[in-house]
Structure formats: C-alpha cells, structure tokens
Amino acid sequence: MRTPLVAANWKMHKTRAEATAFVEAALPQLTGLDGVEVVVCPAFTALETVGRLLAGSAVRLGAQNLHWEREGAFTGEVSAGMLAELGCTYVIVGHSERRRLFGDTDERVRRKVRAAFDAGLVPILCVGETLEERQAGQTESRVAGQVAVATADLSADEVAHLVVAYEPVWAIGTGQAATGQEANRVIGLIRQHLRHRFGPAADAVRIQYGGSVTARNAAEFFSQPEVDGALVGGASLNPHEFAAITRTARR
Length: 251
Ligand code: PEP
Known about the structure:
This protein has 251 residues and is α/β, with parallel strands linked by helices. 42% of the residues lie in helices and 15% in strands. Phosphoenolpyruvate binds next to strand 8.
C-alpha cells in the first residue's frame, strides 16, 4: 500500500521568524502520526532554519525549485546538490507557477527531474491542464504529455520513487477545487500511462492531488483510491489547518 504524502508549498511566504512559529505550532500536531508522510517546502531562505527545527522528527524538508546544472554561471539559481546539503529530501519540480511565470518548459522540467534524482532528491513532479485545455477536451493529452517528457530518461526504479502532483491549473489558488471523483479519474489515467511505460513500478508512484485543498474538502480527495495525499498551497500556511489536512490523509 502506498503511504500518502502531504506536502506544504509555502510559495513566496514566510520569513524565517514566521517559518519558525509555524513549525513550533505544527510539529507537536504532526508528531507520531502513522500512515502519512509529511513534507514542508519553505522558500530557499528558510530552508536551513526549518531543516534545523525538523531535525529528528519524521517531517521532511523540501524545496520549491532547483536548477538542472550542478554548478556554474547561473545567477540566482540553486542546484540539487546545494538542496541536498541543506537536508532536503524532496523538491517540487514544474509547478504551474514556474511553468507560467518563469519559463519552465516540459524539457526544462525533464532536466530538473533528472538533476533531482542524480543528487538523491525525490522530485514532486507537478502536472496539470489549464482551463482552456480542459474546455478543449485536452486534459488527458496534456497531462500525459507532461508526464511522458518529465520521465523520459528515468529508470523504472527511479519512477517507483517519484511523486507526481496532479494540479489542474484552474484549481490552484482559486478556491475552485476539482471534485474528488475527477481528481481520481485523472490520477488513474496518469498511473495507467506510467504502467504502460514502466510496468509494475507505476503502482509504487505516489500521485497527489493539488488545487485549493483545505481542511474542509480534504476528506473528499483522500477517500479516493487513486489519490495519495495532496500538495497544499494556501491552506498550508496555517499550522492548524495543515495539521488537520495531514490527519485526514492517514491510511
Ligand atoms: C499549489 O501551489 O501547489 C497549490 C495547490 O496551491 P493552493 O492549495 O493554494 O491551490
């Protein structure tokens, strides 16, 4: 059975002081929870602070982005090795905000996924269709295409460790979540696509739903058989709400 993964994506929120306050409030509520794995993904500037506070706990540290090269003249960028050195276990790759605002093409996402694995990090690969793509009936082809390119040079063993976050772009930060049924359907298609290419390894891949998940609607997603947790943006900024979502995800 796959252990659900609930990840907090803080985006460009929380100073180190605010991050510290969050961990101090959330950690007692997240400690000793069986049947769920928890990850917190702060901004780069708070990674070390949060990593120190989480040390010795079961809550994992994740970053929100990385560059695919190991080092070089890439002003403002951070490599996978640098994140691993800080104690990160996970890294979000291909978030729709990065695709839309910062030029993360499918090809760049593929290179970032490769770089993450090469440094011993687990990528949380974000895929999802825009509203226009959904209305044009292109959800399946768009999502399958994103997954196909991002996993093009992975082995079955690497794929088994991969985390995918199905995040319909129209649901992110809008308060308009997909239905649990629809998330389950698309996630099932992603798994089918991975099974076709990688065989039984696909059954080990954790595929989260993301897009306006809150403590109120979390159960609708986590009761679906294909949904292995959530990538949570806005609702992850509040330690009590994030802890409540996490508790709901336990299997
Ligand atoms: C996200 O940023 O990955 C996300 C799902 O955001 P929100 O939960 O705010 O929709």
